[in-house]
Amino acid sequence: MTQRSSWKATYSKMALAMVALLSEPAVWAQSADPKEWQLNMGRGVTQTARMAYEAHMVALWVCVVIGALVFGAMGYAIFKFRKSKGAVAAQFSHNTTAEVLWTVIPVLVLIAMAWPATAKLIAMYDTRESEMTVKVTGYQWMWKYEYLGQGVEFTSRLARESDRIRQSGERPTAASQPHYLLDVDNRLVLPVGTKIRFVITADDVIHAWWVPALGWKQDAIPGIVNEAWTNIEQPGVYRGQCAELCGKDHGFMPIVVEALPKAEFQRWLAARRSASAPPAAAPAGAPAPVSAPAAAPAGEVAPAAAPVPAAAPTAAL
């Protein structure tokens, strides 16, 4: 009797824990970036991420309901018609009504799930009416970003401090290096509240550009240009990684997106454009600087200067 009571107490605790876990999906929705021991995907900071999260939660709860019904029926049948009770199995080959039900109901459930999911998938690939375009090119092992039509481009690599620690063999702590291997030397800076079109390709092997908070991943394939878009709703810093095995340093291709308010982004863009602009040419009409004659290469004798002609003799008076 004591053993049976302990089993009942254990099962009761497990059931309460499962109910608490399943009844608070808000707890699962972590911040934009993934966290340690996170139980569920985050909501993200874009409409795309939110659509993916909602589709995921619908599928999850459908599976929970179906699982509860199926395993509940199995458990009831196993307990109710157990051999020790003297149950005798029914003898029949099929049941047309049951077969129709377990065919029609799953089809209707799948249609109900697929219809909104397909609409969301189509919206995720609709890059029309974009306000700016960023070209992303993957290399071993870095990213190149070009703000098309803005005159700004740069490469983004693993931050030097992370690279130094990685090659030194040190074991960093979360306190000393909270973004170890997830920081870069040049962040991709984007404005919030702006529909941004991405054109993504690669120069050498297949890469994949992935930032979880944005809600999508896109392959970067040499010779092929893939498209995607985003509209970031909240300022902040969002991190990602290359998501396609691309060589020995695949794990050292982080992505850092910094989202700024539109006014701050315009100031950043102007400063970046000024820093990358070529030096101004000399004004028209200014005399060209006189360059000194080049020195003779080492080991060679410089040519002798031309002799100065002697003065003409003075005529006799």
TrEMBL record:
Keywords: Copper, Electron transport, Membrane, Metal-binding, Respiratory chain, Signal, Translocase, Transmembrane, Transmembrane helix, Transport. It comes from the Bacteria. Binds a copper A center. One of its GO terms (cellular component) is plasma membrane. Pfam families: COX2 (PF00116), COX2_TM (PF02790). CDD domains: CcO_II_C. Residues 33-128 form the Cytochrome oxidase subunit II transmembrane region profile domain. Its EC number is 7.1.1.9. It catalyses: 4 Fe(II)-[cytochrome c] + O2 + 8 H(+)(in) = 4 Fe(III)-[cytochrome c] + 2 H2O + 4 H(+)(out). One of its GO terms (molecular function) is oxidoreductase activity. This is Cytochrome c oxidase subunit 2. It comes from Xanthomonas hortorum.
